[in-house]
Batch of 2 targets.
Target 1
Amino acid sequence: MKLLQRRIVDISLLDHEPTGLNRSPPMQLLKTGAFLRAARSARLSIPNRRAPPATTYTPSRWSSSQVATEEHHPFPEQSVNASREVDPAKTAEFKNDGVQKSDTNTISYKQQATIAGTPYIVDQTTNVTSSILGLVGRNLYDHPDHPICITRKLIESCFPHPEYNHFTMSDPVVTVKDNFDVLGFPADHPGRSRTDTYYVNSTHLLRTHTSAHQHAAFQTLATEKRTSGYTICADVYRRDSIDRSHFPVFHQMEGARVWGLPPNAESRYHAQTIRTAKMAKQLDALPKTSIEVEDNATSFSRDTNPMQSEHDPVELQLVVSHLKRSLEYLMEQIHKASQESLDPSARQASGPLKVRWVEAYFPFTSPSFELEVLWNGEWLELLGCGVVQQPILNNAGLKYSIGWAWGLGIERFAMLLFGIPDIRLFWSDDRRFLRQFSRGKVTKFEPFSKFPPCYKDIAFWINPSPGVASPIGAEAPSTSGVAAAAGGDATKASPSETQPAAFHENDIMEVVRDIAGSLAEDVKLVDEFVHPTSGRKSLCYRINYRSLERTLTNEEVNGLHDEVARRMASQFGVELR
Ligand code: FA5
Ligand code: MG
């Protein structure tokens, strides 16, 4: 019963404007050669297609500064079972005027959703809401004066053309297959759960990471002889906590680099010898850095972080060194840009950059690593990376290649670069925020004012069955330890739909987000209590309402809070206390 309630999309919840979320300003005119390429890339990133026939999925087009025409379509067509709406009459009303607007995304219970101009059948798996769809198509990474775009350009400059092609992917809808299956995610990985991921329907979802495009991007590398690497930038979506560093949409960049075997060698052995020598030379040619790096992930232990059996140990070491050195160079460039924006006394006070490598786990790389930076006295995770699982390269037509891949959160880098303290600010169209930034420049963010917070608590009993799923101190399910990639937190509650938790923390997050939008600054569990005789559990969450742009009235906050309570009771059957 509970499960059914969760699965149903309530039309009254879906058909209202998102609160407090704003649209971005129009694209600026771009002038220089690089910017003209970027403009072309922006144009190409907009799909200009009719609804595809019933069972054919047309993958989104690359927008690339290196893809000259829209006819050049580097992705081979894939055929998967897709639930796309097929009524061509319906497609006539979809806007396709060259600019994706968030009001082109709609969802209507029991009928269809339209996302980035493409219609989808809605089914029992659907859990996207109109407040989330209101954020689709903003393409902040394409607005040259926006900090997300400035950060993206800076990162791309560390992975230069022609070695690397740079792509953006504007359509966020991907198949479950591309987001999870082809990357080797186990069936019970928490990232797959409807509590953690926004499903459009049972076959399509809002991508949870840019790795969803890895397979297709490797396929382009297999055919493009001039380049050996790429970066991909895109918006990604996760049902997650609410606080200053989490927003349901954020931006990721993915990078990869492969080395193929040279053709025409006398033998495979000879080809590999030539390749190994080339790799060593390229490693040597990477720019030297002088940052302080602590490396806690140097051995590839069979138990915790194994190398793949297909790989030659010498080549593996070269790939790992090339990966780490490339990313350390990126860190140094980010740090330099950030330092240059400070006045000399602030620069001195900020101290040296400290980064460290730690072991990690991703289903699609092995060995795997994370890069962390010491920030405000704590280690902050910036990116995940590793040596690409060989079957992924093999399946993409890169059979004898070896390579690395990384994925990073642009907001995390942008917060470091510009000193932006709250992730919601990236979505603001307040001129006091936007006018502080301009293309090609890193400037420190000047807070324009701090408006007062307003805390409200909500306490409720949750149903005890089927097992005590507690957001605090929950017993980690069997997938514990594989929660690192693409969202999904195994410590929060049951990850599996076959064992639905009585209550999942992300459910209250979603309700608050849907009602209060970016007026909710954070939501925290502040009390947990089990009734001594009935065994029922009570939870108390504290919601901090605060606008970044104005002072909220008591009346307004009470209205929002009452609606949160009403929705929690009606949608999740909790008993309010
Ligand atoms: C991934 O998403 C992997 N796809 C990364 C990857 C790619 C690994 C290629 C190996 C090879 P993860 O879920 O850890 O991993 O996210 C990657 C980065 O995105 C994090 O290091 C962090 O910088 C950023 N990130 C993750 N969650 C959030 C969030 N809620 N808000 C802002 N940034 C986030
Ligand atoms: Mg991670």
Target 2
Amino acid sequence: MSINRELAAHFDMLASLMEISGANAFKVNANRTVVRVLESLDDDVAQLAAAGTLEKVDGIGKGTATKIHAFIETGSIPELDALQLELPEGLIGLLDISGLGPKTIGRLWRDADVVDRASLRTAIEDGRLASLPRMGAKTIANISDSLDFAEQSADRTPIGVAHPLASALVDALGAVAGVQRIMWAGSLRRGCETIGDIDILAVADTPADLIEAFTSRDDVLKVLVAGDTKASVRLDAGMQVDLRVVPDDCWGATCMYFTGSKEHNIELRGRAQSMGMRLNEYGLFPDDGDSTPPQDRGIAPVAAATEADIYAALELPLRDPARRESGIDITTADAPLIQVDDIGAELHAHTTASDGHLSIDELVDAARRRGMHTIAVTDHSVSSVQANGLSVDRLLAHVQAVHEARDRHPDMTLLAGSEVDIHADGSLDYDDDILAQLDIVVASPHASLKQDPAKATARLLAAIEHPLVHIIGHPTGRMIGRRPGLDPDMQALVQAAASCGTALEINANPRRLDLRDRDVRHAVAAGCLIAIDTDAHTDAHFDFLPYGVLTAQRGGLAAAQCVNCLPADALLAWLADKASLAGACG
Ligand code: DGT
Ligand code: CA
Ligand code: CA
Ligand code: ZN
């Protein structure tokens, strides 16, 4: 893999820290230019450096070339190291707060003694910020909101980061001698969008060997607890992981307890009590009124070995982990939930025509390797300048190229479409006569994401009601931990979508997961169509699909309500006349 991206990130950090430290704007900008050069460079920087031709690249001068050589040799840039030592460490954490640029952070540091998030909060509260020149009440309120948002998500990790870490751990620990069962529980098993810590449960012949294998791993930063059957560590990646080695005969009860949610466990314990029983992590027991735990008195459980046994003994439907949350009636069975294998169409994907990394043929190939029968090419529209959005002329040429690609891929249904921007006022980025020439239109908000809720609702309703729009892409535009996105009246949207036959997207990118789980619950109740798309810009993005499906499951979605599960002919019929499926799921 080329180092271009990693190097670009280092130059970006260098430029930001220089700006915070008050360096000359000309020098700061020179480094920002290097970031752009590196990001758009096709050649591998390491190869250019080896060949001694770095300085032939436009925008890379002698000083930059020296820094790049240092990076290749040592993994860091000396000027960046020096700044990191010189500046308070907490200032870097302020760069993630939207609305706070490096220049402002520098002012706050020099003029108001702000060195991290906590001191920024204090400076807002004690009025120090308001005493600075050019710091109006509105600016301060915006900074305060962004700080709240960053703090709420501070200790949690997106599922897209936690899941690969947990997968690698479970694979490695599962191979330790004597390990009979191993799986993750907790919020990760429930498919939550962010994860506090990873909970792993295992059954092992020699627990000590498993604990030792776990705590001595190379990717463990610190061992927090190491007992006979339980250990907790912090990984280099920052996450905490709890491992519990448990008895085999009560595996189901343990899985259930540590999967949670806490609220679901409380409801189940209440149910057990109302039936004269007690539920804990060792099993479901008869309640004999004795306060010593039943498992310590040799009492045989009514059920313990499997989760299914326990739900059955409680006379409840077996609940999918994704549905073990508060607010979901434990006595009502879910319709069978959608599964990854139900999905045969990717309806939102990008190519090199806009900001994707795949050609049309490569996109088709990526979809084919995932067993898809249909792939839609939906590059950005003209207003998405930062994403190299297509002018009308480029769009029409691209549509032509997609049509020509069909001959090369007779096994795939290849749709020519667009991801068209929804402007702040609800109008679309291409005229209707252009949209009418497309097989599929995904309409998405990309800019003006701080609109007030009423305007956001009107904006999205206009797109939902537009006869040529099939799917609303990432409807709120939120980014987990970075920006809250639009806050429309979701009830109004799902009702309108249901009556027009427009699908609302669950964008499976784990930074988006937009719609989010609670919105999907509204959508399912209203009977509106749902799309689950990866918004692929690279081959690897196709593997985001399970995150979208987990979010769908958390919302209670069945395959019948998801357009990506339609067979190709039914999908084409909906695309030709979306009203044909209006209200079909109601
Ligand atoms: P997280 O880690 O914040 O993303 O969320 P969880 O759900 O993984 O929570 P965690 O790691 O604190 O605990 C894992 C599960 O263990 C939790 O979902 C339910 C169960 N559990 C933990 N503490 C309690 C408790 O005090 N009462 C009950 N009933 N269950 C608990
Ligand atoms: Ca957890
Ligand atoms: Ca835990
Ligand atoms: Zn997209």
